[in-house]
């Protein structure tokens, strides 16, 4: 049996590698499509395909992980991601870019939850269902954020280091990302042993996945605690998209042009990811100081609301003052979300058993993306009509209202026994 310390280290490594491919491709992806002849509408179509595929498969793939095992799903995710990134690097037509987006969407949906569920199941098997999840979950989240920050920087500067005439500079980041995905696959194969499940035919798997999904949905929306956590995920998605959607334009106006604005946003985004990494690392300490998960969640969500409110209040500043205030609020918001995320992860995992763990995690991810989609539709139009200050004020108000979800929040039900979780892991 893997020791808890070993499981924590392996989970941290896999978390780092899982986010690295996406981080490496972020800076050049849109520019690569534009350079190869796609217009803005076509780029938007490609991005929409990615979102639709991810949302459509979020729950089915979560149920699949609960049926055939976390490790197998992560291996499939890494392999599909590598193929999608290679397709992106060499695509020359819109249909190849669409194929790349679809493959990446499948990989993203597959990767949502299994690593986290593997760690929780492994820790419960070793120490029982009352084991403290915060140290391992915070380390995994911290490593994921660190990976995003480093990957964005490497992906942003890699094209500048390519000698002229050897390879198209903007194709280098997705190629590096494909290599990182292969590295994730190899590490997953050797670092995440999982007790074998019973042999299942395709028909048995297909029958069990829908039942697992239905059970997970009933669990997520049937009880007050998980229903509140799912609703907060919607507010979380609105908060995230409000800054990711509106900050680039704000920085471009401060920098005096789109190119300088893109560079400024790459640096600010990296700082935000590093802030998220720091927040995740400090979350266990915050839990001790604040005296528990609910108090910690309330405090961290309040910090997020204040940070977005600060973005709104300083939207009229120009020059260096505007740049520093925007960057500072961005970093504080991501740090606060990281701390809040740990408390929500722990409350969620303590309220479910291994049988529905990945499915419920996927439901939370789906709720977050739904909130983000709503924000994309409303806040962009609001910013265009009334200015970014009003849009950010609305986002801050939504996050503030989400604090009401913690009023008389019920305690998690008694967790399943370690024996039950161990039996489920064996299958």
UniProtKB/TrEMBL annotation:
InterPro entries: MFS, MFS_DHA3_Transporter, MFS_dom, MFS_trans_sf, Sugar_transporter_CS
Alphabetized GO MF terms: transmembrane transporter activity
Keywords, sorted A to Z: Membrane, Transmembrane, Transmembrane helix
Keyword Membrane: yes
Short name of any one Pfam family annotated for the protein: MFS_1
Entry-linked SUPFAM superfamilies: MFS general substrate transporter
Membrane-crossing residue ranges in chain numbering: 12-32, 39-57, 73-98, 137-158, 170-192, 263-285, 297-321, 327-344, 365-384, 390-407
Record-level GO cellular component terms: plasma membrane
Membrane topology: Multi-pass membrane protein
Superkingdom of the source species: Bacteria
Residues in coiled coil: none
Domain annotation Major facilitator superfamily (MFS) profile: ranges: 7-414
Subcellular localization: Cell membrane
Primary localisation category: membrane
Protein known as: Major facilitator superfamily (MFS) profile domain-containing protein
Organism the protein comes from: Nonomuraea soli
